[in-house]
From TrEMBL:
It is an enzyme of class 2 (transferase). It comes from Picathartes gymnocephalus. GO terms for biological process: tRNA methylation; wybutosine biosynthetic process. The lineage of its organism: Eukaryota, Metazoa, Chordata, Craniata, Vertebrata. It catalyses: 7-[(3S)-3-amino-3-carboxypropyl]wyosine(37) in tRNA(Phe) + S-adenosyl-L-methionine = 7-[(3S)-(3-amino-3-methoxycarbonyl)propyl]wyosine(37) in tRNA(Phe) + S-adenosyl-L-homocysteine; 7-[(3S)-(3-amino-3-methoxycarbonyl)propyl]wyosine(37) in tRNA(Phe) + S-adenosyl-L-methionine + CO2 = wybutosine(37) in tRNA(Phe) + S-adenosyl-L-homocysteine + 2 H(+). GO terms for molecular function: tRNA methyltransferase activity. Probable S-adenosyl-L-methionine-dependent methyltransferase that acts as a component of the wybutosine biosynthesis pathway. Wybutosine is a hyper modified guanosine with a tricyclic base found at the 3'-position adjacent to the anticodon of eukaryotic phenylalanine tRNA. May methylate the carboxyl group of leucine residues to form alpha-leucine ester residues. Belongs to the methyltransferase superfamily. LCMT family. The gene is Lcmt2. Keywords: Methyltransferase, S-adenosyl-L-methionine, Transferase, tRNA processing. Coiled coil: none annotated. Its EC number is 2.1.1.290, 2.3.1.231. This is tRNA wybutosine-synthesizing protein 4. Signal peptide: none annotated. It comes from the Eukaryota.
Amino acid sequence: VGSGSAVSLSRQVQSTGGSSAVSKCSTAAQGYIQDRFLRLLAGRRRRRAPLIHRGYYIRARAVDHCVQDFLLKTQSLPRTQILSLGAGFDSLYFRLKDMGLLHHTVVYEVDFPNVACQKAALIKRTKELSVLVGDTGGEGLGAITFSGEDYKLLGVDLSELSELERTLEDAGLNNEIPTLFIAEVVLTYMENTRSDALIHWVAEHFPQACFLVYEQVHPEDPFGRVMQQHFRQLNTALHSLAQYPDCGAQQKRFLGKGWTECSVVDMNEFFTCCIPEDEQQRVQTLEPFDEYEEWHLKCSHYFVLAASKGLEPSWTPLLPSVTVPRPAGPAGMAGSVPAAACARLSGIPGLRRYGHHSVLIKPNMILTMGGFGEEDGQHCRVRNFHVLSKHAGYWKAVCVTQNTPGKRWGERLYHTVSCLSDTLALVVGGRTSPSSSGLGMLWLKFPETCNAPGPDDIAVELVSLQPAAEAAALRWRHSTTEMTFKGEQYLFVYGGRSALEPVLGDWYFLHTPELSYTVIAVEGPVPESRHSHSACSWEGGVLIAGGLGAAEQPLGSVFLLRELEHGFQWQAIETHPPLVPRYSHTAHVHEGKLLLVGGVWFHASSVPGITVIDLTTGLCLDYVINVEHLEWPLMLHNHSSVFLPNEKELLVIGGGGNCFSFGTHLNAEPVLLSLSSILISH
């Protein structure tokens, strides 16, 4: 790399550090973490979204967990050191000093020379910072930009190893005492040969050391591709990912470069296993939040690693991966399902959305409504309806405007749509923002001769409910399923969440068409409360599968609500092998088989494809979706799907979400999944 391009690259990397400082500052301001120094160091202030706050919270907790563990386990030793690589405007030293944890520890920070100079100047002119550190006037010696008794700030490029070694020696770093090295999203910005050399150099030169790394993994799944694209656009490519794509590869990397112990966990595992339950609950209730899919995907794409050598086993800051069983992933893939884009639907922005609902209103005709996506050239809650119809083997779509003056009832996310007849559908629940109360019910009426609906063909009317049935409608991420009892038609509204309750486990029987609330006896083991599950009609009853449970943990249970003489009974369906817990999937039943489509699970080495459960034997088979013919990442969560039994095809419409700070991804066009090879009738 020529020096000119190296300088511009270092500027790009530094800008990610500045943005990260602002995000950390916002996270502290909202009460996720206690850190009064971030606002002094971050410069500009800006309130970030709740999803960003959670992401930076878990990052701060992971680093703190390992740092405090190191300090605790070495507190009886006369001297220790911490060396933070690429520290930027981090507040670690000031927090530890303020907490009285640095009695015998010196903190060294290294970053690009201009970053180190800016930070040194900031400390000197900010009394709250300078009074803590006590300036001993040792700066100005080469690359040392600030020197206190227990704090040294050094301006040096990490990839220049010989220069780094010389500067650390000048600053008084002692190779012989236990040292913790921290690299928080730093190594991945370096060329692999250089970061590998740095890891090996530390192991060779420091007989007693720990190395803490926090950075990204899983570059090749849909979220990973969006993440990589984001960093490429910033001109800060993530170099580690190609060579070290997962936690296992990172562990081997350290063990092969002179480190004797190494444990790695992804952030879903860290949150579940290392953060006490009461603290998990505190964080989950700090702000209105409804982006679970993106939160769990973000967490499965970051890891924290702790490597060590030469230390007594009792004071290695080990992570819990050694003792905690990983959630079992799919036992193996039974085959693959080909995906093909519906090319003729590619130019229709209204079909790029998530959190919407689609329903078959008559053969070869699908109504899609609601959600968040593209409309009138911007991202917003989608107001218009779309009707997809199949003619001569091809799908085409028509946008249907909602023509009730002054009313925007169709603008909602995470609602359900049930088709009750050729001319009538019912919309139940949904939300606008996560802090709003749920929305009521709507009738959608379409004319009988609706072959190619015109813009004014769908009438929307608000349903006036009896008070007893109102609670059924004030929820979202629930399910509404058609069922029968004693020959009568009912809708079964189950689960979901509301503005007040993060997860619901109640249910309502609504007699159709007048929607009167009916009490019907239900016995058997009641399923755990859940939202973002799937529900299908089967043999007059209802099949519930998966979902997100009370502690924001995915569920792997399947329940059948089956009709008895005087009511219904919940019956658990055992699956073999056990169903991998998941949520935000869709589901269909075909000839005694339950098909689960996509979703989010914690098992990070693959993304959910199609799972087929034989409802007679409980046999559970996973199939991967073959996306080689798609030119864009297919995100199968927050999507809708319609099963076409004659063709044995699934039409997937929409899907995607807000991918942390990497931008919003919307699946570019509807996709057909051919299931003929996996649904062979026996």
